Amino acid sequence: MSGQDAATATTAVTTVGAAAEGEPPTSPRMRGIGASVPSADVRAKTEGTFPYAADLWAEGLLWAAVLRSPHAHARILSIDTSAAAEMPGVRAVITHADVPGATTHGRRIADRPVFAHDVVRHHGEPIAAVAADHPDTARLAAAAITVEYELLDAVTDPEQSFGAAPLHPDGNLIRHIPLRYGDPEATGEVVVEGLYRIGRQDPAPIGAEAGLAVPRPDGGVEIYTASTDPHTDRDLAAACFGLDPDRVRVVVTGVPGATADREDPAFQLPLGLLALRTGCPVKLAATREESFLGHAHRHPTLLRYRHHADAEGRLVKVEAQILMDAGAYADSSAESLAAAVAFACGPYIVPHAFVEGWAVRTNNPPSGHVRGEGAMQVCAAYEGQMDKLAAALGIDGAEVRMRNVLSTGDLLPTGQTVTCPAPVAELLRSVRDFPLPSLPKDTPEEEWLLPGGPEGAGEPGAVRRGVGYGVGMVHMLGAEGADEVSTATVKVVGGTATVICAAVDTGQGFATLARQIVQEVLGVDEVAMAPVDTDQPPAGPSAHGRHTWVSGGAVERAAKMVRTQLLQPMAHKLGMSTELLQIQDGRITSYDGAFSTTVAEAIEGKELWATAQCRPHPTEPLGADGQGDAFVGLAFCAIRAVVDVDIELGSVRVVELAVAQDVGRILNPRQLEARIEAGVTQGVGAALTENLRSVAGLVRHPDLTGYALPTSLDAPAVRIVRLVEERDVVAPFGAKAASAVPVVTTPAAIASAVRAATGRPVNRIPIRPSAAVAVPNS
Amino acid sequence: MTLPVSLDEAVAALTAMPAAVPVAGGTDLMAAVNAGLLRPAALVGLGRINEIRGWQYQDGHALLGAGLTHARMGRPDFAALIPALAAAARAAGPPQIRNAGTLGGNIATAAPTGDALPVLAALEAILVIVGPGGSQREIPVSHLLAGREMLRPGELIGFVRVPLLHAPQVFLKATGRTGPGRAVASVGLVLDPARRGVRCAIGAVAPMPLRPLEAEQWVASLIDWDGDRSLAPEALEAFGEYVAAACVPDQGEPVSSGVLHLRRTVAVLARRALGRALTS
Q: What interface predicted TM-score (ipTM) does this complex get?
């Protein structure tokens, strides 16, 4: 399917059987923009030969283990490492005292100790690390370190954080945004209020954190790890090691998928420190438990809302209070809060908005960047409010949303004008008008999967079906003045093009897109991606759908520069400008057709290099009243959820999710669908089962049995009913990021459908069975 | 790791190496090893002992080998014999777990959420324990689960004897999700027309399956065993409430919403289980 076909066709795919359709991977048309080019590593990953970070090996390596705090909040009175250091096979034991450089670090604010030394502020915080010649020895040695604690009261309720004694020298309030927009005295004829709670979703990467650090002869160190932001990780590591950044090299190795800041820097620091200390390669592979304890989670959030609307259901004013639990350290909480506050009203026109947001410290597990952060929590709340409004007015949920939808040219409550395409009405209409799935009684020949599963206790007589809607939005790229820049190099040597760009493909498919871009511009078939390391110029983190935009833009510019180098001599010979030559289907042809040659022939024996940067238009931080042009671009999504609920047991099965998404332009149809299906499934997990529970700050069940990820039986039929291709003129190729917005919207849609099925308020995500129990016919 | 091919050899290996741990499917044991909770000095693998991988008939009972996998028990031929145990086996996790996990392992692990356990409790299964020197003794499954009797050094669960009741049996479990998951609560319910009894056990709500004996006797007295065995919906409802009140205590005032939800879940499961058993 070409890009043009995709623009006009209504794509309807289901997760089941989609792979059987489409062109075979060997088709000659499988190249360039708009083709479903498969990922280059897909074969290795399915055959099990792809080298993940946990497979790394070096001759003579040592194994590391980290001692972590068993308490959520305690004062450290003493640390005795002597017993561990004396164990046979132990080569080094390091604590806070052994950090040569900066003793605190952090991606945004350096407020997190490399090793806790005076106070531990969350369960699982690193205190010491050991290198030994066997992994068991390392673990035993770590366990032999004696730490004397004085237990302190753990602050685990974010509402208590305001009045509690400071948990950190920087204070408990990480950020406060009081957004004021419009007239505070405005009131509507209908007022609805709600209180919503969002749980703690874990990114739960199936491959837990792993890495290898190798000391260099020059006193530096190389860290092999599955980083998603290698240059930031390098700079943090160099600062803590007391080395110049050019003495530390981060090499990105097999990333097993990432939907968040993939590796906590706190994971790479002990590795590098131990390698520098021992002079040996050191490997660390986190256990599942360490992985759950160490990396950042989605912010648990408490939201209070009051919506005012007129008698027709048009919004007049939104008042909201948003309290985000940041855990003990700041990480990206300030940015997450900005997104939550800015999108607190959703993709709706709101003349007056008063939103106060706080991100506060607690002794709960750390929070940070997980895709759709901030936006997802508020979406579940403002869509709950829209349902309440619809119920108060006695009109349909889709209709009340339709009366308020945002479009291009409208203002966000931050005062920013929406300049990008915002086809929210079209998205909502598409999912609303899509035929509903049949009821089991209408298709008795089909097997009906009841809530509770194939061997569950479901009883057809107690099952109610509900239909609900969610409309969500996210921003793309870093916000509030972040310098968004990426650099890429394209070279053509010996008939093959290579892209050198430090943008990490975390599974989002950037490597495939970069190959497609070069194929499109240069007409070459063979395009390779160079492995990523920090000797390359920085490309920034893999987050906020950045790489399609900034790194894709940089690759395109570099490829166009190579194209000019290639065509210039020919054009000169023909006495025409290079614009009159075109590259298509592997041939270079002049405008009049008089001259024609193949690309392969033209690049024979040539060596062409070009490097380019892409830097989108700048943004500004939100001001004291929450006003400012803080975002580069926005993406929207509408989802209609159909659920079956066993109203006696409260078990929920999501039958179908109909998705319509604003994608700008389809660069790779198959990959785009896969991203949307993956995002929706992550949203199903957030909506129903995923919640990393903690009691008094201590994480309960940090394993994949206790933390229930969706299985194929939990995943619904995903119907992508509409992909709106309105090109965003400022984005390269006009494409929008696709992964985050389905995650943001899905929980809201499912909650809405469960409300419809049960009549219960459903104001807590994930939805617990007890919240979905209803009295029949009430 | 030793791999005996008979029960006698396995017992001999365990007697010779008292520190050795027997392993069948390994679905619980290996998880504990991987989590660093257990580092056995030696393992005695039970996977090659053919005599415990099937079943045989013994005067109105089935003698089930402890090495029967959940996958095997889930098949239709087994389901025709002991339907509730087959249903529990089919519900016991994803296919990978069912292919490896065994009946004996489920009993030996004695996890509160073990899916086979409420069914065995309702069937009043008897464990045949083999020990050193060819010794053999029998203990009720509930005695082992309650810790009233323990396995002695060198002993293994060889077989599980369950009655063949030739009457409807039901296993139901609530997990809160559609995919395979741990039970929040489960129920095994069997009818015993010969003894005019209803036997029911609730799993996952306590460290071992609980039998609501008074509720069983009360409801059995309502059933017309010689007639169509049906009960009015109100009676089914009352049975569910009776079972739930017996198995989920208040645990202090005020009763928490969690306890109320669990009690409601147990009531619904017991009601549905009895309803299905009486109408099938």
A: 0.91
